[in-house]
UniProtKB/TrEMBL annotation:
The chain crosses the membrane at residues 12-33. It comes from Anatilimnocola aggregata. Keywords: Membrane, Transmembrane, Transmembrane helix. This is Uncharacterized protein. The lineage of its organism: Bacteria, Pseudomonadati, Planctomycetota, Planctomycetia, Pirellulales.
Length: 283
């Protein structure tokens, strides 16, 4: 090969060949890891959009079900209570649907964690992340060694005998923090920790799939928080199970609370209560 021309030392040639081989083998692995997650970000964004649309539809369904309860509460006749009970059951089903939002949140969080593991797994020892990981590992080993040496000294161990829990931790920290080598080692660990956090953050933000998935997760969490806030403001969060509202007047009050909460959710999602129009038959 031309790349080896002019290199007479066989050991140097062997080392160079191993290095090239390693690089060639590593490249497909990194490309494969990237291809495995290619498109995840778009899928995550689609999941967040679908979850938002589902919340809108669920809020609209809540309003429709609650309006049915109001009608049933005002009805008279022999089957009025049966209608009210049935309407309350449907309203309960509509309100329970909001709990599904957390399933989307957990799924996106799992997806984001997997992407992060893949990104970090692509980093070799000679990358900024690899060097930062080596530094923090060495710093932690140094700190642990100094700590063990200090606490094993006879005068120190005698001082700590009989202490437990918070008292032991406090006394040990007082000993450690009075020694400069320990403080220097602790500073090294903290500095290395900040460094690897910065490198990790930069890697994640440079990855398109990570950014899209992170944004999708943030959006879903904001939507969930908005729904929770509306539940608190309207009193929805303090409501009893809807089947317990047996009296018509109580059921009507509960229905109005459900409507207020659902309308607040729609407003926070920049949506309106426009349920699908009833289909009409051609004459």
């Amino acid at each position: 090969m031309l790349i080896f021309s002019g290199i007479s030392n066989p050991y140097v040639r062997l080392a160079l060949a191993i290095t090239i081989c390693g690089a060639v083998c590593l490249a497909p692995m990194c490309a494969s890891a990237r291809s495995r997650r290619s498109g995840r970000g778009k899928s995550s964004a689609a999941a967040a959009a679908a979850r938002r649309q589902a919340m809108i539809q669920q809020a609209q369904a809540q309003i429709a079900a609650a309006q049915t309860v109001l009608s049933a509460a005002e009805s008279q006749g022999g089957n009025a209570q049966t209608q009210l009970t049935s309407s309350l059951s449907k309203m309960q089903q509509a309100t329970d649907a909001f709990k599904q939002a957390h399933e989307t949140e957990h799924g996106l969080l799992k997806e984001l964690t997997e992407i992060e593991h893949e990104i970090l797994g692509e980093q070799s020892v000679d990358t900024p992340y690899g060097r930062a990981a080596t530094e923090i590992a060495q710093a932690k080993r140094e700190l642990a060694s100094i700590k063990a040496q200090l606490l094993s000294q006879s005068d120190v161990s005698t001082k700590l005998i009989g202490l437990k829990g918070v008292a032991l931790t406090t006394a040990a920290n007082e000993v450690l923090e009075s020694h400069q080598p320990y403080l220097f080692a602790l500073l090294r660990v903290r500095t290395a920790g900040r460094e690897i956090d910065d490198v990790r953050t930069a890697l994640f933000r440079a990855d398109e799939d990570w950014r899209q998935t992170s944004e999708a997760l943030t959006q879903v969490r904001q939507d969930i928080d908005s729904a929770k806030q509306q539940a608190i403001v309207t009193g929805f969060a303090r409501m009893k199970p809807l089947h317990e509202y047996r009296k018509a007047s109580d059921a009507a009050a509960a229905a109005r609370t459900v409507i207020a909460q659902a309308e607040g959710v729609l407003q926070s999602l920049n949506a309106t209560n426009k349920p699908p129009a009833a289909s009409s038959k051609k004459k």
